[in-house]
């Protein structure tokens, strides 16, 4: 079957693109490898998305998904591994290959890893990249948050209500904050910060039991939450589509990539501000541009 438009990624950008395309009476398929709603489904309260004074991330993700389903968008769980150019585009995934006249890439981004000894070994057994996903598993336990920015602080504040103690491992002499005040932790007795420190290794026997800092100091914890930023998952697109030095897909003002008939939106593209509202906006632009492309070709 050849679809009119295939959207890869079911975050706010991808779901918005799918809704716009389907409302234009096109045959639309959304391919998603993880959670419908993308990163939004894993965060806590959202208070900066227009139309909602406050809404939990998982609820907002469900709203996006439900609307797409209601208008008739088709969904499939699969993982994209390649993209073949041609008059008809082929989206190669692990389970199958899907074809379409136009493709919208809303791949989002993924958590950056520490790349230290023991990290990969203990993923799912004490190492996590999502506090709202896994925080409940560490109720009453000691945990560490690795990071120096607002996301690290938000994670620590969230875990503070669940865990026995929280320590932050910051590689800088002070936290790099934009949304929070530096004294945010002054009244929280169970939060400790290690400044100018790097995680050298993660230790344990079947599960995380502690970490070792570059100073040699050992810190006993039951869980480690990594919050050192995100990166696009676009390695497989190298030499196919123009990417910037960080791996983000370069687009013009119409969301068109360097490959004809392929558009990009949301966090995977080179938009300056990466927020839920901007992801949705670029999704609408990408869908509209894809619809125009199909009409012209």
Describe this structure in words.
The protein is α/β, with parallel strands linked by helices. The chain folds into two domains: 173 residues, FAD/NAD(P)-binding domain; 100 residues, FAD/NAD(P)-binding domain, CATH 3.50.50. It has five helices and 19 strands. The strands form five sheets. Strands 1, 2, 5, 6, 7, 8 and 19 form a seven-stranded mixed β-sheet that branches. The protein has a five-stranded parallel β-sheet with strand order 10-17-11-12-13, with helices on one face. A hairpin with a 4-residue loop joins strand 6 and strand 7. The chain is elongated, with a radius of gyration of 21 Å.
In short:
This protein is of the alpha/beta class and 297 residues long.
